[in-house]
Amino acid sequence: MGGAALTAHEGAACGKVILLGEHAVVWGVPALAAGISLGATAIVEPADSAVSSLEIEGASSELPPQEAAAIQIALEALSTACGVTCPVRARVTLAIPVRAGLGSSAAIAVALARALFGRAGTTPSHEMLIDAASAWERVFHGNPSGIDVAAAVLGGVIHFERARGARSIPLSCPLSICIGLSGRRPSTRAMVDQVAQFASRKGGMGEQIFAEIRELVSAAEQALATGDLRALGKLMDMNHALLSSLSVSTDDLDGMCTAARRAGALGAKLTGAGGGGCVIALAPGCEQAVLEAWQGLGFPGLHATIA
Ligand code: MEV
Questions:
Q1: Is there an atom of ligand 1 within 6 Å of 274 CB?
Q2: Domain span including residue 110
Q3: In the structure, how many helices (H) and strands (E) does the chain have?
Q4: Is position 148 annotated as part of the catalytic site?
Q5: pTM for the full predicted model
Q6: Are 161 and 181 in a shared domain?
Q7: What's the pLDDT tens digit per position in 53-62?
């Protein structure tokens, strides 16, 4: 490792919103996601003890003990995947809330992977970053589709399909997205398991819903290509309705979507695993009105421009 041994290495990665296709993506349906400028930054230094450690600023003290144990396992898996065999002291700063559906876990993994590869003296390809960060994600999410990691690595807007991976989608105009935080923090794994149970209980209904989501995703890609934001908003509304029928929405999320539409948003939906977490609203020109409507309901929000 030579001179790299004594140096601190840094990495950063973006959080994400899923524009359309969450949950169905686990079952092989394509999905559209976008990196947001808020995310994670990581610093990795040589450890002064025999064991690697990770401190997540602002979040470490919130974590239950079993999650702290999983983080240790995930850090070892990630370090090995990045070719770092000596113990490290890692620190992460997060600009997005954890367990809110904004890809905090993937952002942490990719930021750490960039720093760890730097420590190993390697310039990683996108594939190397995705493979390494996926080793971390598997510890927490069991069988993730990989969309969060792909969005954190690539940024911008991506088309993601489990069997084929990710490709970047050029935008014909920037997207102005408001993100509303419900404050509830569900486990992605629990929500994915819940959808699997729904799909197995309800005969072919799960497959039918996934097929409809596939159509919406395909139409949304067209809308993005032509800059038809009205169509994109309607497709987001329809995706939310299908997610509700998969039982992953909540009264709060439904209320936030309705409030956003009333405030002028072109469309609104839950984003990520649901059961709490966040909603997104496509809100060009009415960002303030949407954020105020959520505030009136007691939910904080933030604004992201995706270009
Ligand atoms: C989580 O951001 C999105 C889900 O589709 C799970 C996954 O893709 O692994 C709910």
A1: no
A2: 2-169
A3: 9, 10
A4: yes
A5: 0.94
A6: no
A7: 999 986 766 6
